[in-house]
Amino acid sequence: MTDQPGPGEGPPSAGQKAPGGPPTPHDAVFRRIFGVPANAASQLRAVLPPDLAGRLDLARLAPAPGSFVDESLRWRHSDLLFTAPLDGRDAFVYVLIEHQSSDDPLMAYRMLRYLTRIWDAYERGHPKAGRLPAVIPLVVHHGKRRWASPVQLLDVINLEPDAKQRVQTYLPRFEFLLDDLSGIDDRQLHDRDLTPPAEITLVLLRDAPGNPHIAAGLRPRSDKLRAVLDQPDGGEAFIALLTYIEVVSEAPVGALRDLAASLGPDAEEAYVTTAEILRAEGRVEGKALGKAEDILVVFEQRGIDIDDRSRELIESCTDLDTLNGWFRRAFQVDKASDLFEE
To answer: Which of 148, 31, 45, 21 lies closest to 80, judged by CA?
Structure first.
């Protein structure tokens, strides 16, 4: 396409704050990895119906500027728009990732609204166009529970089945494609012909949030992690993945450091760079502060008095491994000062 749709500016770069809401780590890693056409194309080949994937020229998949998500929903939705010829004609592929743990019962309606905005932008760039390009919509969901809401707009409309049957000719008919990661196991992910960055990112979106064992869970995929590093700009992609793990998981610092070290000196160097970036952004300190507050809450709920010295030691500690150990001991000790005895 000669004129790409969009409001005049491209989507935020990885880690940049999206208008209308705080940045999310999910958004950052999604944009950094799937903003690369080769990674996005591998995901599309894996999840689109074979006939549709065969008609799309995914070898010519190219990113298009613009984000079409409602301002108020940018904390839970991230989107990427691509162009790709469909049977030789201009077309778009619109990929949206849903960050909520629960699904959205009105997602079919929201997706139709986002697609309408894409067509609005296309029409502004092509005022003499008499037809609109196809837009293929895909939602990627990585919540803890399986998606249970409608994927078809007709199912969102509030009518009795008999009435809906009688008037459906006059109702909008629209359906989006769904990739529900909560229902995809490791074998199914492994069987997809994904690029290494795409596979690792899907695994992390599915498994990393709140998971203290994510580093161990990634060891069977050490070859894929190594392959990420070996690609052009692989160091940047690897840092993006490590950053996501550090921010959303409960992985002990030592476990993630050991995993990186097992992959080679460049991976260990990337780990050090990640730690420096997070410290500069204040995320490590913020995570440590949150864990310190958790320890104090445990003592308060157990009715254990917290002396000033113990409170100072807990609140001043910035080592997450130490804090995690103290947190586990907080359920066992009888005095706050016993927390620090080996």
So the answer is: 31
Asked if 68 and 116 touch (Cβ cutoff 8 Å), the reply is: no
Q: Name the token pair of 200.
A: 């690792």
pTM reported for the whole predicted model: 0.74
Alpha helix positions (H), the chain:
25-34, 37-47, 50-55, 107-125, 161-167, 186-191, 196-207, 214-218, 222-230, 234-248, 253-262, 265-281, 283-301, 308-316, 320-329
**Is residue 35 within 8 Å of residue 63, measured between CB atoms?**
yes
Pairing label, strands 134-141, 91-98:
parallel
- Residue 121 burial class via C-beta count within 10 angstroms: exposed 0-12, middle 13-18, buried 19 and up: buried
In this structure, how many other beta carbons lie within 10 angstroms of the beta carbon of residue 165? 10
Query: pLDDT of the chain along its 342 residues, tens only?
Result: 444 444 333 333 333 333 344 457 788 899 999 999 999 999 999 999 999 999 999 999 999 998 999 887 877 788 999 999 999 999 999 999 987 767 889 999 999 999 999 999 999 999 999 999 999 999 999 888 899 999 999 999 999 989 988 998 898 889 999 999 998 999 999 899 999 999 999 999 999 988 999 999 999 999 999 999 999 889 999 999 999 998 888 888 788 999 999 999 999 999 988 887 776 666 655 666 777 888 888 888 888 989 888 888 887 787 777 888 888 889 888 889 888 875
- Write the single-letter amino acid at 227: A
Dihedral sign from CA coordinates of 287, 292, 296, 299:
positive
Which 8-state DSSP code applies to residue 101?
S
Residue of 217, 225, 244, 256 whose CA lies nearest to 31: 244
